[in-house]
Amino acid sequence: MGMRIVVLNASSKKKGGASRCFSRILKLMLAGCQVTTVQVRNQSDHEDAFTEMEKADAVILSAPLYIDGIPAHLLEFLQQAEMMCREKNCSFRLYVLSNGGFVEGRQNKIHLKMYEAWCRHAGVTWGGGLGIGGGTILHVFCILLPILFVLRLIQVAAIFWTNGDISGGEIWNCMQGLCIYVFFLLGLLLHEGIMALGIRKGRTMKNHYTRVWMPSFLFLIGADIFMLLAALCNGTLPHKLFRKVYPDTEKNG
Question: Residue 117 in contact with residue 78, Cβ under 8 Å?
Fold first, then answer.
């Protein structure tokens, strides 16, 4: 039997989310290990997580960065998990995937330090963390990549069906866009691969940081467009995002 690994998805979202996406990629890289995934969204999830953590060799926590710190729902879980780990003498290594909306991966540095401090209090071993910058945009690319891959395969098949043959140049023209998306994700894939190797070998690693591989000015433009589109999809008009709200001085005395 391979090593027992527990993946804790700490996204507050019921479906989707960057944290869940990044943990799934890491899970694919741990093929051959006994990997169990548990959602940690509210108190009803705690007992299942504690049961799995008690018998785990390694625990992978994938969590978003909220205002440079731990999300409130996860903080409550960690407080209870600390007592459980002490009572049960847990011996797992904790690895953390921290993702934030800022483009700089090092924005997650303090967040990772918090989990490292938690390990000392809980009596378990800190395995290392990965700080991911531009998490939302990377998540979008992860969704688009397989869709684009299927569309490109259809395009190649259509060319072959029409002409009865296809050249290497035509294949390359079809796949250029796919390569660009892979390049944007390359930092994430490389660092998650390094983490997967460390987990397999039971090593404690230094914290690593990565980001979406694109110039920051392009990231800012893309992020602004994405947030405006997201606001429209949720029924918020763009001009309301920039409206300043002033305190009511009369009511406040």
Answer: no
* Residue 26's pLDDT band (cuts 50, 70, 90): very high
Of the candidates 18, 127, 112, 3, which has an alpha carbon nearest to the alpha carbon of residue 68?
112
For the chain, domain boundaries = 4-141+185-213
Rounded to the nearest 5°, which phi and psi values hold at 49?
Answer: -65, -45
Fold assignment, 4-141+185-213: Rossmann fold (3.40.50)
| Number of helical (H) and strand (E) elements in the chain, helices listed first | 8, 6
Question: What pTM did the predictor assign?
Answer: 0.81
Cα–Cα distance for residue pair 231/222, rounded to 1 Å: 14
* All residues at 6 or more sequence positions from 59 whose CB lies less than 8 Å from its CB, including other chains: 5, 6, 7, 8, 53, 92, 93, 94, 95
Rg (CA), the chain: 21
Banded pLDDT at 23 (limits 50, 70, 90): very high
DSSP states of 31-93 as a string?
Answer: TTSEEEEEE-SSGGGHHHHHHHHHT-SEEEEEEE-BTTB--HHHHHHHHHHHHHHHHHT--PE
